Amino acid sequence: MPAKVRKAVFPAAGLGTRFLPATKAQPKEMLSLVDKPLIQYGVEEAMHSGIQNIIIVTGRGKSAIEDHFDVSFELENMLETRGKTDLLAAVRAVSDMINVCYVRQKEALGLGHAVLRARELVGAEPFAVVLSDDVIDSETPCVRQLLDIYQFFAAPVLAVMEVPRENISAYGVVDAEPVYHNGSSDRLFRIRDMVEKPKASEAPSNLAIIGRYVLTPEVFESIGAVEPGSGGEIQLTDGLKHLLRSRPVYAYRFEGTRHDAGDKLGFLKATVEFALARHDLGSDFREYLKSLKL
Ligand code: G1P
Q: Is the Cβ atom of 251 under 6 angstroms away from ligand 1?
């Protein structure tokens, strides 16, 4: 049996330039879809996948994230005195169920660099990586889907989805061969090669890496061995490509819908879909949208 995955790393030190001015004094991970910050969707996904230890890689100006996962004594006291038990439960739910620790990425030198900052806290055990820009709506949490593959093959695995050619250069892209697993051969792939943000004409496939990974600790050595790549940054994709030299790495086309909440249009779409799915808001919101007669 491979070692149990107990920890999830959340890189959260990016500058959030795509959402300026909203992110001038507020981390982009704290932007909310309806009423929940992006990072909380990812933390809940990890939690519902059986992971309780959360490592957040932060940078300057990210203290709102720390406050969010901390106990807010004044707020809880006020909700309790006013008998607002539902809100109290919502506020407590996350901080009660997980352990969070923080490590600083002093300079935004790339995703691989951010993951490497978590090395000491992760130690010599497997771990998940969750990018909170990618919000995934699925019956089985996406991290759980990857953990099932990891447990079966005892090898690193990352989430992929098919994206149209014209969008492929926004992603890490894999060159991979199908692996027959659980009665099908169109979900699991063994990676042959991968490349971060290729030109559309040079992309090896239409399978794009989405921000969920289950990795083994050898990846730290590999990340440490690569030079800055796309955008002059230390890329996680390059670290994983280096890891391929010494062990198999899998890609899993997960079941579920991924929202690109790191993009303005993606963020708006996710907001509408999540609001429509809410019991307390959905029907009024649907009526409102219909009334717009677009
Ligand atoms: C990161 C990864 C990329 C991946 C993407 C998924 O890129 O580097 O490989 O495809 O997340 O969202 P970013 O979007 O941070 O530029």
A: no
Domain 7-262 sits in which CATH superfamily? Spore Coat Polysaccharide Biosynthesis Protein SpsA; Chain A (3.90.550.10)
Peptide bond into 198 cis (omega under 30): no
Higher pLDDT pick, 33 / 59 = 33
β-pair partners for 55: 9, 101
Q: Is the minimum distance from the CB of 196 to ligand 1 under 6 angstroms?
A: yes
User: Is 238 touching ligand 1 by the criterion CB < 6 Å?
Assistant: no
**Strand 7-12 relative to strand 53-58, pairing:** parallel
Enumerate the domain spans of the chain: 7-262
Q: Which two tokens stand for residue 175?
A: 């060159």
What's the pLDDT band for 92 if we cut at 50, 70, 90? confident
Q: 209 CA to middle of ligand 1, Å?
A: 7
Rounded to two decimals, what is the model's pTM? Answer: 0.95
Distance 171 CA to ligand 1 centre (A): 5
Strand 32-33 to 36-37 pairing: antiparallel
Distance CA 171, CA 113 (A): 17
Nearest-atom number in ligand 1 for the CA of 208 is: 10
What are the tens digits of pLDDT across the range 72-84? 888 888 998 999 9
